[in-house]
Amino acid sequence: MLTHVSDKGVDMVDISEKKKTVRTAIAVGSIYLKESTMELMRNEGLKKGNVLATAQVAGIMATKRTHDLIPLCHQIPLNKISIEFQDLSDHYQVRCTVRTTYGTGVEMEALQGASQALLTIWDMVKANEKDEKGQYTTTRIGDICVIKKEK
Predict the structure, then answer these.
(1) pLDDT per residue over 81-106, tens digit each?
(2) Among 49, 67, 95, 141, whose CB has the most other CB atoms within 10 angstroms?
(3) How far apart are CA 109 and CA 115, in angstroms?
């Protein structure tokens, strides 16, 4: 049986009978950058300002808007959103942790937060990442996945 499609078209899944429980999801992703860009980020030497603080705000904002961005996704009351970064020499890893007490999970919210934080980092460093032809030959985002889901 399909959960999002009926003879009348598409439907949002009815979760009204689901028990409200504490649910947590953690998503991660990575952005690979030039060593020179990594150094500028470490020393807060980029013209656009503090990249990681801006990416934190963007990730939190996107997490709260997941239901606006993914069709048929429930609007979930979020109890906690955390965006953290780990400098892994040639790339940064973003970790987004989301928690709710509700009747459905928060995996999509965690993925949304991690993804937006990564995109914001790219936007803030793009002037430093372009080559002489204006191309991004080394910059890449990847490894986005849910590493933990609890309920």
Answers:
(1) 999 999 999 999 999 999 999 999 99
(2) 95
(3) 10
Kindly list the catalytic residues.
123
The structure's pTM equals 0.92
Cβ 74 vs Cβ 18: under 8 Å: no
Distance separating alpha carbons of residues 47 and 128, to the nearest angstrom: 10
* Whether CATH 3.60.10.10 fits 21-150: no
pLDDT tens digit sequence for 101-123? 999 999 999 999 999 999 999 99
Compute CA distances 10 → 2, 3, 13, 42, 71, whole Å: 10, 9, 9, 47, 10
CA distance 14 to 20: 13
Tokens 């937060």 — which residue? 113
